[in-house]
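USER:
I would value a second opinion on how I read folds in C-alpha cell form. Give me a protein, with the fold worked out from its sequence. Write it directly below this note and I will take it from there.

ASSISTANT:
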Amino acid sequence: MSNSRLIYLLFFTFMLCCFGQISTTHAANLYSFIMLDTDDRDIGADRDLISIDTWLTKISRNTGLIEKRHILKIEGDMVSEQKGLEQAKALLENSGHGPGDVVIFYYSGHGLSSETSEKWPRLAMGGKTTKSQNFLEVEYVREVLSKKNPQLLLILVDACNNSALPIFPSLTKDLLSNPELPESYKKLFLGYEGILIASSSKKGEVSYGTQVSGGVFTRAFADQLRKQLISTSPSWEAIATALDGKPLTPGGAFTDTKQHPQFDISKLKAKNGVLIHSPAQPVVSPLPSVVSPPPSRLLCKDGPKAYFKKEGRKCCFISHSNEEIMCY
C-alpha cells in the first residue's frame, strides 16, 4: 500500500471518529419507560397514561428527539401470576439507550416504603396484591438506566411510600392549559445533563389518585412543568423548589390530608457544568402510615376492589391483606 493511500485511510478513520464523538454530544433519542397499574381502575393510572403520552409527544416535537417509547401495563398475568418484576427488569436491562440520549422513567401505581432506602418507595409490580419479592426498587432503576450514561435521566414516581397498600375514593382536580415555548423545551431537555429523581410522597405517607385526573403528584408536576415551559428561562431547579417537601392536598373530602413530594437533583447540572443543588429539606411532621377516609366517603361495597366490608351497622376500611384498619 502506498504512503499516500495509507495517509488517506488514516485521515478518513480520524474523521469518522471525530464525527462519532461530535454526534454523541447532542441528544438524539428520547427513551421512555412507562409503567402503570392499570389493573386497579380506582387510582387513575389510565388518566396518567394520557398525560404522559401528551408530555412525550410535545417533548419530541419541540426538541427533535426521536421517540423510543416502552409501556408496561400491570394487569393480567402480571398480577395473577406475579410476573411484573421479571418483565420490568427485562425491559430496563435491555434498553438500547446510550450517551447523548434523554431517558424518562415514569411509574404510576401502588407502592410501599422500602426497607433498603431511607427515601424512595418500592414499586408494586403485581398490583395491590403484590407479593414481597415482586417490588421494583427506585435505586435499581437509577443504577440500570444510568449505567449507559444517558445525557439526561428523569425518574418520576407517583406511588404511596408507607407501610400498607390503601385504596381511596376518586377525587378530581382541574388544571389550566398554558401556552408553551419550543425553546423552553430545548433548554429543559437538551440543556441539562445528569439525573433527577422524584417521588410523590415522603416515607410514611400515602399518595392520592383519581379516576378522572390521575395521580395528584402527576398533575402537580404537570402544573409546574407547564409554568417552566411558558418561561423564557426554565429550570428543573424551579420545579423541584416548587414541589419538594411542599404539601399537596387532594381536595374534596380529603382537605385535611396531605402528601409531600421529594426530589433529588444533586446529580443534575446545566450543560455549562454548573451543578444544581437540591432544595433545602423542610421539617415536616410525619403523617400516619394510613389515612382513613371520612364516613361520608365510605362505600361499604363488597369485593376486593372497594376494600370495604360491613360489620353489622359498621363500615370498615380494610387493607390488601384483609386486616381491619378502621370502622365507623
Notes: Residues 292-328 form one domain. The chain has two domains: 26-291, 292-328.
